[in-house]
Give the backbone structure.
Amino acid sequence: MSSRSDRSVAAPHRSALPAVWALGALLALAVLPEAAAAQEELATACQQAGGSTLRCTEAATTARAVQGHLGLMSGLGSEVPGSAGTLGRRLGTTPRIAVSGRVGFTDVGVPDPSDAGEGPAREAGFILPSLQGQVALGLFDGFSPMPTVGGVLSVDLLGSAGVVFFPKGQGFDGSVTQLSFGARVGLLRESFTLPGVAVSLTRRLPGPVTLGALTAGDRASVTVDPGVTSVRATVGKDLLSVGVLAGVGYDRYDGDAILRLRDVPEVRDDSFTASRALFFGGASLNFLILQLSAELGWAKGFSALDAYRNVPYDVTGGTLYGSLAFRLTL
């Protein structure tokens, strides 16, 4: 027969099972292959309008790449920098508030629209920076099914605004602002024996961006105006003044894509969709109410079209990204 002390030690591990199941489900979703249907439909519509297979396939691939980079830079990794679990409340019904600022970067690659050659465009590569400000509001402390386990179904509200600095020297039409809103639900609150675990759902609304201009002699002009639905799951723990976290995410992109090629009518797709997984990890330094953190992550690539393989730009390659942030928790 098990003793009372044996049962009390095992209980926190059983209570952590829902968090493990939730993280496992998101990870399974994240590794599913990304379909290329919308990308292929856009290329086909371009060909039906009179464009060549190479130019149309390349333009659709460019639209997919720009949409992915803009969507990724609108969110990056964790929703609240350096925070794996929910905030909770301060005293009574007073919400806890976290205000943060983040500088992000991603290693960008796209087909170069200024390439004057007849074959596939060379790849243009550069570092894309962004700035973000975030606010998180702890609304509900959640439930504590046993003394060592708390924060179950706790809730934070999330909001952010930022700027992605697309370089005009690379053929873009300028920087893009973005807004996002969402919520984070706690699965476990961090304790001496358990890490903090949370899952978030966020809707991001970046503005449109254009790459290439026919009036400047570019081979194509591509405009995307996406929305992004993001899911993030994070797990982390503070070790004295140093904290660590890891996470997995799933982004679904939707919205408009417009292709413009020479001697071809404008081609538009109002439901240009895609999805991909991303993974990230980070560390932080804690100074009472101030925290400094850094994250590094990798986002999966997209499916390639059969007519655009073995070319200088590979849309299937993953994307490296990262960020530095500060956070004040009050």
The chain is about 20% helix and 45% strand. The helical segments are 4-15, 17-30, 37-48, 53-73. The chain has one domain: 13-329. The first strand starts at residue 96 and ends at 111.
